[in-house]
Amino acid sequence: MSTPSTPQKTSKTSKKVVVFDYGFGNVRSAERALARAGADVEITRDFDRAMNADGLLVPGVGAFAACMQGLKEARGDWIIDRRLAGGRPVMGICVGMQILFGLGIEHGVETEGLAEWPGRVEQLQADVVPHMGWNTVEAPADSELFAGLDADARFYFVHSYAVHDWQLETHNPAMSAPKVTWSTHGKPFVAAVENGSLWATQFHPEKSGDAGAQLLTNWIGTL
């Protein structure tokens, strides 16, 4: 199936998506991309609106430690935790994905993340850092996030750090194992995760053209 040039709307009723504005993220780009994908979008850090939206999108740019500090000051850590406890969808982008892991290491400084997943965010192991530009990914065959996209679809990355080792294992056969998507820049790294109500991408879907628009449409379709 070819990458669609015009993403299809998933519902006649727009889903309410809050782009969480905690000072670290391309909130306007995310707002435009989500609106293109059919969502009713609001940029806010208001606690009640963030809690009650159908979906919460957490962007992130810059340093891991700074993003964590900004998130906590806006009570975003508590909002994310409570939403996930109630099975309410959350999606992280770029550093907004990285802070979902247990630990970020930048310039020798270790910063605790939200620990929704175990793992360490470390500098990319590649000859050229940052990883900036378009790249392909290897998604699971049953991925909902990448549904309708060709295997050679390309997404836009801008990052110097990533998770190289996926550590969460699911031993309970009654539980669905997380779906982990990989990309490669030097050494393979985690490019996206689908884990119940928590999804995330290391790349920027809002900057990834039609492929990114389809991916956001897929997420909105699950809300």
TrEMBL record:
GO MF annotations in UniProt: lyase activity
E.C. number: 4.3.2.10, 3.5.1.2
Gene3D superfamilies referenced in this protein's UniProt entry, alphabetically: 3.40.50.880
Keyword check for Lyase: yes
Keywords, in A-Z order: Amino-acid biosynthesis, Cytoplasm, Glutamine amidotransferase, Histidine biosynthesis, Hydrolase, Lyase
Annotated catalysed reactions: L-glutamine + H2O = L-glutamate + NH4(+); 5-[(5-phospho-1-deoxy-D-ribulos-1-ylimino)methylamino]-1-(5-phospho-beta-D-ribosyl)imidazole-4-carboxamide + L-glutamine = D-erythro-1-(imidazol-4-yl)glycerol 3-phosphate + 5-amino-1-(5-phospho-beta-D-ribosyl)imidazole-4-carboxamide + L-glutamate + H(+)
Active site: C94 (nucleophile), H204, E206
Domain of life from the UniProt record: Bacteria
Localization per record: Cytoplasm
A Pfam family annotated for this UniProt entry: GATase
Domain Glutamine amidotransferase: 18-218
Key word Glycosyltransferase present: no
Transmembrane segments: none
Pathway noted in the entry: Amino-acid biosynthesis; L-histidine biosynthesis; L-histidine from 5-phospho-alpha-D-ribose 1-diphosphate: step 5/9
Principal location listed in the UniProt entry: cytoplasm
Coiled coil: none
Entries under PANTHER family matching the protein: IMIDAZOLE GLYCEROL PHOSPHATE SYNTHASE SUBUNIT HISH
Subunit description: Heterodimer of HisH and HisF.
Biological function: IGPS catalyzes the conversion of PRFAR and glutamine to IGP, AICAR and glutamate. The HisH subunit catalyzes the hydrolysis of glutamine to glutamate and ammonia as part of the synthesis of IGP and AICAR. The resulting ammonia molecule is channeled to the active site of HisF.
NCBIfam families documented for this protein: IMP_synth_hisH
HAMAP family reported in the protein's UniProt record: HisH
Protein name according to UniProt: Imidazole glycerol phosphate synthase subunit HisH
Lineage: Bacteria, Bacillati, Actinomycetota, Actinomycetes, Kitasatosporales
